[in-house]
Amino acid sequence: MPTLSRADNSLLGRWWWSVDHWTLGAIGVLIGFGYIMMLAASPAVAERIGSSRETFILKQVVFLALAGVIVVAVSLLSQRDIKRLAIAGCVIALALTAATMVMGVEIKGARRWIALPGMTIQPSEFLKPCFAIVSGWLLSEAKRSPRFPGTIIAFAVFGLILMLLKSQPDIGMLAVVTVVFLAQLYINGLPLVLVGVALGMIGGGGVMAFTLFPHVRSRVIRFWDGTGDNYQITTALEAFGNGGLMGRGPGEGHVKDVLPDAHADFVFAVAGEEFGMLICVVILSIFAFIVLRGLLRLLREQNLFVVLSCTGLVTGFGLQAFVNMASTLQLIPTKGMTLPFISYGGSSVIAVALGMGMLLGLTRRRGRDERA
User: Fold this and answer.
1) CA 71 → CA 19, 28, 138, 355, distances in Å?
2) How far apart are CA 70 and CA 62, in angstroms?
3) Please, what's the b/e burial string for 118-151 (b: 16 or more CB within 10 A of its CB; e: otherwise)?
4) Which pTM was predicted?
5) Any idea what DSSP says for residue 338?
6) Which of 109, 167, 287, 293 is the most exposed place for a label (fewest CB within 10 A)?
7) Cβ atoms 250, 275 nearer than 8 A
8) 7-47, pLDDT tens digit by residue?
9) What are the pLDDT digits (tens) for 275-305?
């Protein structure tokens, strides 16, 4: 069987010996968990809505396979090409997110999706990784060339995203993008006083969301008075209790038979019931490993563009995973956000794969001619 040697100067050979194998392997493990959880959770959900048991499985097999290809393909790109891809992706995602206001599919009172043959896409999912790269580039260029208004442009793009996501509305996605941008500003040298001001503005934004949006107010009130999100949260917590340390066994769980989003927002509860607390801790540890390793690798990085962009990518990735798991465990008010690579959802899986491919591509060890 042929192997890649360090002397191999092909594109694939250079990629293999320069990419972070540990992060790549951790992403592969998460994709593997995604296949397992789709086999465990989706057939019962499909039957309940009158579809074939294989409906979600077949779609997600394609999505996860495509995600693996995207991770590798994007990580092969140069830093300059990743920047260009992110700029194009951000422009397209902004246009399609705006289009949801006119031609979007309304689900549960929100217009976030565009219908395509056989599937729907959520364009705002692609804003997270693409905006992280674009804002990282704009902020770093402003540092390198003080006459270039990169910071102003970055704030303008963020303001446009804010207006679009507020109009859908998608407060959870807006919160993630905001935290990503603030993390980048802080790493870029934002004074602590302004950090405090920004945190105060986030608090004010939370109060406005509570006041203006009935579904946000309802979720927060039910979280604080202990009733959670009624049936779904109570059922999810019972599933963790039923699973115990080792779980009931593959296919033996009951939560997937009763929760409408067991294959998506509440897939972590299915894992807890069928595979137990130990597997949940393993999943949590893999997410933490990817985030921490990504940040630690940046300590040796001299390119500000790479530092800012990768900070945004790992912040968004980690925060999305935290929101899904914490809301399932009733640690925070519920928010319909997928667990990266594990929950069902084509837009989410492809967008996360794009972000992880960018992370691997930007942090590869490169020769001088490969740098942006």
Assistant:
1) 11, 10, 24, 8
2) 12
3) eeebbbbbbbbbbbbbbbbbbbbbbeeeeeeebb
4) 0.87
5) P
6) 109
7) yes
8) 667 778 788 888 999 999 999 999 999 999 888 888 877 77
9) 999 999 999 999 999 999 999 999 888 899 9
User: SS in 3 state form for 7-23?
Assistant: CCCCHHHHHHCCCCHHH
**Amino acid 202: pLDDT:** 67
As a residue count, the chain comes to: 372
Question: What is the Cα 75 distance to its own chain's centre?
Answer: 17
Mean pLDDT, residues 123-136 taken together: 93
Burial class (CB in 10 A: 0-12, 13-18, 19+), 255: buried
State both tokens at 49: 């809505």
Phi, psi angles (nearest 5°) of residue 111:
-105, 90
pLDDT at position 166, please? 82
Strands (E), 62-131: 105-107, 110-116, 119-121
Token pair 């006119």 is at which residue?
A: 102
Tokens representing 125 are 């999912």
Maximum Cα interatomic distance, the chain, rounded to a whole number of Å: 63
Backbone angles phi, psi at 77, to 5 degrees: -75, 155
User: So what's the pLDDT on residue 121?
Assistant: 84
Contact indicator for 278, 246 with CB cutoff of 8 Å: yes
Contacts of 21 (CB under 8 A, 6+ apart): none
**With 70 as the cut, is the pLDDT of residue 249 above it?**
yes
> Which structure tokens are listed for 39?
């086999």
| Structure tokens that stand for 161 in this block | 């995203």
Name the amino acid, one letter, at 98: A
Mean pLDDT of the chain, nearest integer? 84
Contact 251, 209 (CB under 8 A): no
Domain ranges of the chain: 19-365
